[in-house]
Amino acid sequence: TSRELQLDFLKSISIVCVVVIHSVHGAVTPAERFLATLVDTLTRPCIAIFLFVAGYLFHSAAIVDRLKKTIVRIVLPYSVFFALALIYEKKGGTLDYILGEPLKVVFRFVTGSITIYYFPFVILTASVCVAAILLLRVGATGVWILTAALLAVNLLHAAYLDDFARSLGPQAERLELFYIYRSPAWLFYFVLGMAARMHRWPLETVSSAKWLSRVPFFLTVSAYVGLILLVPEETAGVMAYNSVIGTCYSVSAILFLASFRVEARGWSFLAERTYFLYLSHILVVNSLRDLAAQSGIAVPFWFSCVTLIVAIAVPLSVLALLK
């Protein structure tokens, strides 16, 4: 259906943006560094978009009824790639690390803290699904009230959490907890998707009204420009996750992308392979980064483009061979 194609389009855009964020690591000149910042910041709404789609597709009854299938489909692939990432990280000392610090390994598995702290989103998505089973009891009307409340939590989170964490000392700022302690902020996007599904909005409404599609476009561009101009270059990408203007950027990007009328079924091809690409691409990216580091030369921006292409092509090729 048209709605399914729109959701596939959003999922595909989201996963490509995730790979872009992890691929952008080459910059030599100031112009290249600025270009890298532009690209990195542009793609930051990806997780918000993914959580919105997950919320839109969420059914508590379906999750409960298909719990075993869900575990196999989500946890098993995650376990395999967690093990591969751990082997990649520790190289020949993997077994000694597991036997020497088993509790730490379990902690890292449960929190998704591996390689470049990329897997926490698996845990994050599972956590918000569990929370949503309880939240659905508020009903169709109450879910909008809940969405507004979680938006307030998101904005307070973005405005004050870092200062609060710094007041607790360096232990509270450990990077592997970066996404975990921001979970309440992420829940807003998931519940926004749930609310959108209940009211069949914005996929049908926005895409059917041209003037409505222009509003989120201008809001998205304004928020993006604001991130670039008002936030220091070295933190612009991260602040798209953790700032009030970043939340505005993510919400407007969701509305803008949802306004597209999608007819090409090619988006479904990528959307169906999103989870495998999500789990596997980081190994390709890190391998190319290591090769670049071993070369001992400054890596230009074009290497990021090569990394992006290879990081998408290799997993998709492996998956095609496995099938």
Please provide a written account of the structure:
By secondary structure, the protein is mainly α. It is built from 17 helices and no strands. It has helices spanning 2-23, 30-42, 46-56, 60-65, 67-90, 94-100, 102-111, 120-135, 139-167, 183-198, 203-208, 210-230, 236-239, 244-258, 266-271, 274-295, 302-322. Helix 1 (2-23) runs antiparallel to helix 3 and helix 3 (46-56) crosses helix 14. The mean pLDDT is 79.
Keywords:
single chain, 323 residues, mainly alpha, 17 helices, globular
Task: Please summarize what this structure is.
The protein has 323 residues and is mainly alpha-helical. 77% of the residues lie in helices and 0% in strands. The relative contact order is 0.17.
What is the helix fraction of residues, given as a range?
over 70%
Order of helices and strands: HHHHHHHHHHHHHHHHH
Uncertain spans = none
Beta-strand portion reads under 5%
Q: Tell me the number of helical segments per DSSP (H or I, 4 or more residues long).
A: 17
User: How many β-strands, per DSSP?
Assistant: 0
Largest sheet: none
N→C terminal distance: 26 Å
SS-based structural class? mainly alpha
Which helices and strands occur, and which strands form pairs?
Blueprint: H1 2-23, H2 30-42, H3 46-56, H4 60-65, H5 67-90, H6 94-100, H7 102-111, H8 120-135, H9 139-167, H10 183-198, H11 203-208, H12 210-230, H13 236-239, H14 244-258, H15 266-271, H16 274-295, H17 302-322
